[in-house]
Amino acid sequence: MIPEVKEIMDELKERMDNAIKYLVKEYNAFKTGKASPALVEDIKVEYYGATVPLKQIASISVPDPRMIVIQPYDKSATKAIERAIQTSPLGITPNVDGNIIRLIIPKPTEERRRELVKLASKKAEEVRISIRQARRDAIEAIRKLEKEDKLISEDESERYQKEIEKQVKNYLAKVEEIFKEKEKEILSV
Question: How far apart are CA 131 and CA 59, in angstroms?
Protein backbone atom coordinates (compact mmCIF):
# COMPACT_ATOMS: atom_id res chain seq x y z
CA MET A 1 0.00 0.00 0.00
CA ILE A 2 1.50 3.32 -1.03
CA PRO A 3 1.84 6.04 1.64
CA GLU A 4 -0.90 8.19 0.11
CA VAL A 5 -3.45 5.35 0.32
CA LYS A 6 -2.38 4.50 3.88
CA GLU A 7 -2.87 8.15 4.84
CA ILE A 8 -6.39 8.15 3.33
CA MET A 9 -7.31 4.91 5.14
CA ASP A 10 -5.87 6.16 8.45
CA GLU A 11 -7.79 9.43 8.21
CA LEU A 12 -10.99 7.54 7.39
CA LYS A 13 -10.55 5.29 10.43
CA GLU A 14 -9.76 8.26 12.69
CA ARG A 15 -12.84 10.18 11.54
CA MET A 16 -15.09 7.16 12.07
CA ASP A 17 -13.55 6.43 15.49
CA ASN A 18 -14.15 10.05 16.49
CA ALA A 19 -17.77 9.81 15.32
CA ILE A 20 -18.32 6.73 17.53
CA LYS A 21 -16.65 8.45 20.52
CA TYR A 22 -18.91 11.47 20.00
CA LEU A 23 -22.02 9.26 19.98
CA VAL A 24 -20.98 7.46 23.16
CA LYS A 25 -20.22 10.77 24.91
CA GLU A 26 -23.58 12.22 23.83
CA TYR A 27 -25.43 9.11 25.02
CA ASN A 28 -23.64 9.15 28.39
CA ALA A 29 -25.00 12.64 29.03
CA PHE A 30 -28.63 11.54 28.47
CA LYS A 31 -30.85 11.72 31.53
CA THR A 32 -32.44 8.30 31.19
CA GLY A 33 -33.40 7.92 34.82
CA LYS A 34 -30.21 6.00 35.43
CA ALA A 35 -27.48 7.64 37.50
CA SER A 36 -24.18 8.26 35.73
CA PRO A 37 -21.20 10.48 36.60
CA ALA A 38 -21.37 11.79 33.01
CA LEU A 39 -24.59 13.62 33.92
CA VAL A 40 -22.75 16.00 36.25
CA GLU A 41 -19.00 15.79 35.67
CA ASP A 42 -18.89 18.67 33.18
CA ILE A 43 -21.16 21.07 35.14
CA LYS A 44 -19.27 24.35 35.48
CA VAL A 45 -18.63 25.49 39.06
CA GLU A 46 -17.44 28.94 40.17
CA TYR A 47 -14.51 28.06 42.43
CA TYR A 48 -12.19 30.75 43.80
CA GLY A 49 -12.91 33.09 40.91
CA ALA A 50 -12.43 30.44 38.19
CA THR A 51 -14.99 28.34 36.35
CA VAL A 52 -14.02 24.67 36.51
CA PRO A 53 -15.74 21.38 35.64
CA LEU A 54 -17.19 19.60 38.67
CA LYS A 55 -15.02 16.52 38.10
CA GLN A 56 -11.90 18.62 38.87
CA ILE A 57 -13.02 19.68 42.35
CA ALA A 58 -15.02 16.68 43.61
CA SER A 59 -15.21 12.92 43.49
CA ILE A 60 -18.36 11.64 41.80
CA SER A 61 -19.72 8.18 42.54
CA VAL A 62 -22.86 6.19 41.80
CA PRO A 63 -23.71 4.00 44.84
CA ASP A 64 -26.97 2.82 43.28
CA PRO A 65 -28.73 3.18 39.89
CA ARG A 66 -30.82 6.18 40.98
CA MET A 67 -28.32 8.22 43.00
CA ILE A 68 -25.18 10.26 42.35
CA VAL A 69 -22.96 11.18 45.30
CA ILE A 70 -20.63 14.16 45.01
CA GLN A 71 -17.92 14.72 47.58
CA PRO A 72 -15.90 17.94 47.19
CA TYR A 73 -12.15 17.68 47.74
CA ASP A 74 -12.38 21.07 49.48
CA LYS A 75 -15.31 21.41 51.93
CA SER A 76 -15.60 25.13 51.14
CA ALA A 77 -16.66 24.24 47.57
CA THR A 78 -19.88 22.52 48.70
CA LYS A 79 -22.08 25.64 48.40
CA ALA A 80 -20.65 26.54 44.98
CA ILE A 81 -21.26 22.99 43.73
CA GLU A 82 -24.82 23.03 45.09
CA ARG A 83 -25.48 26.37 43.34
CA ALA A 84 -24.00 25.11 40.04
CA ILE A 85 -26.21 22.00 40.11
CA GLN A 86 -29.33 24.06 40.88
CA THR A 87 -28.66 26.43 37.97
CA SER A 88 -27.69 23.64 35.54
CA PRO A 89 -30.22 22.28 33.03
CA LEU A 90 -30.33 18.99 35.00
CA GLY A 91 -33.47 20.02 36.83
CA ILE A 92 -32.52 18.09 39.98
CA THR A 93 -32.44 19.58 43.47
CA PRO A 94 -29.31 18.50 45.36
CA ASN A 95 -29.57 17.13 48.92
CA VAL A 96 -26.66 18.45 50.98
CA ASP A 97 -25.58 16.49 54.05
CA GLY A 98 -22.50 18.14 55.56
CA ASN A 99 -20.02 18.16 52.70
CA ILE A 100 -21.67 15.33 50.74
CA ILE A 101 -24.13 16.16 47.97
CA ARG A 102 -26.64 13.56 46.87
CA LEU A 103 -28.67 13.73 43.67
CA ILE A 104 -31.70 11.46 43.35
CA ILE A 105 -32.37 10.79 39.67
CA PRO A 106 -36.13 10.78 38.97
CA LYS A 107 -37.67 8.08 36.83
CA PRO A 108 -38.67 9.56 33.43
CA THR A 109 -42.28 9.46 32.28
CA GLU A 110 -43.32 7.30 29.32
CA GLU A 111 -43.58 10.43 27.16
CA ARG A 112 -40.06 11.55 28.20
CA ARG A 113 -38.66 8.09 27.37
CA ARG A 114 -40.17 8.30 23.87
CA GLU A 115 -38.59 11.76 23.44
CA LEU A 116 -35.24 10.36 24.57
CA VAL A 117 -35.46 7.51 22.06
CA LYS A 118 -36.18 10.06 19.29
CA LEU A 119 -33.23 12.16 20.43
CA ALA A 120 -30.99 9.08 20.56
CA SER A 121 -32.10 8.16 17.04
CA LYS A 122 -31.35 11.68 15.83
CA LYS A 123 -27.84 11.56 17.36
CA ALA A 124 -27.23 8.17 15.74
CA GLU A 125 -28.31 9.56 12.37
CA GLU A 126 -25.93 12.53 12.76
CA VAL A 127 -23.10 10.07 13.31
CA ARG A 128 -24.17 7.92 10.34
CA ILE A 129 -24.10 11.03 8.14
CA SER A 130 -20.65 11.91 9.47
CA ILE A 131 -19.38 8.40 8.68
CA ARG A 132 -20.87 8.53 5.17
CA GLN A 133 -19.20 11.90 4.60
CA ALA A 134 -15.87 10.38 5.67
CA ARG A 135 -16.49 7.53 3.19
CA ARG A 136 -17.29 9.98 0.39
CA ASP A 137 -14.10 11.96 1.08
CA ALA A 138 -11.96 8.80 1.19
CA ILE A 139 -13.39 7.45 -2.07
CA GLU A 140 -12.88 10.80 -3.79
CA ALA A 141 -9.27 10.82 -2.60
CA ILE A 142 -8.72 7.26 -3.90
CA ARG A 143 -10.26 8.18 -7.28
CA LYS A 144 -7.99 11.25 -7.45
CA LEU A 145 -4.96 9.01 -6.89
CA GLU A 146 -6.12 6.85 -9.81
CA LYS A 147 -7.41 9.44 -12.33
CA GLU A 148 -5.36 12.60 -11.71
CA ASP A 149 -2.20 11.53 -9.90
CA LYS A 150 -1.89 8.15 -11.72
CA LEU A 151 -0.38 6.60 -8.57
CA ILE A 152 -2.66 3.55 -8.52
CA SER A 153 -4.30 1.40 -11.17
CA GLU A 154 -8.03 1.08 -11.76
CA ASP A 155 -8.01 -2.39 -10.14
CA GLU A 156 -6.23 -1.07 -7.06
CA SER A 157 -8.68 1.83 -6.89
CA GLU A 158 -11.63 -0.58 -6.92
CA ARG A 159 -9.99 -2.80 -4.31
CA TYR A 160 -9.39 0.17 -1.98
CA GLN A 161 -12.93 1.44 -2.53
CA LYS A 162 -14.30 -1.99 -1.57
CA GLU A 163 -12.10 -1.94 1.55
CA ILE A 164 -13.48 1.51 2.44
CA GLU A 165 -17.05 0.25 1.96
CA LYS A 166 -16.32 -2.75 4.19
CA GLN A 167 -14.92 -0.55 6.98
CA VAL A 168 -17.82 1.90 6.72
CA LYS A 169 -20.32 -0.97 6.88
CA ASN A 170 -18.67 -2.18 10.12
CA TYR A 171 -18.80 1.28 11.67
CA LEU A 172 -22.43 1.81 10.67
CA ALA A 173 -23.20 -1.55 12.32
CA LYS A 174 -21.43 -0.29 15.49
CA VAL A 175 -23.60 2.85 15.45
CA GLU A 176 -26.72 0.70 15.15
CA GLU A 177 -25.56 -1.56 17.99
CA ILE A 178 -24.83 1.41 20.28
CA PHE A 179 -28.21 2.98 19.42
CA LYS A 180 -30.13 -0.26 20.07
CA GLU A 181 -28.37 -0.66 23.42
CA LYS A 182 -29.23 2.92 24.42
CA GLU A 183 -32.83 2.51 23.24
CA LYS A 184 -33.16 -0.65 25.37
CA GLU A 185 -31.67 1.19 28.38
CA ILE A 186 -34.05 4.16 27.96
CA LEU A 187 -37.15 1.99 27.61
CA SER A 188 -36.26 -0.35 30.48
CA VAL A 189 -35.94 2.37 33.13
Answer: 35
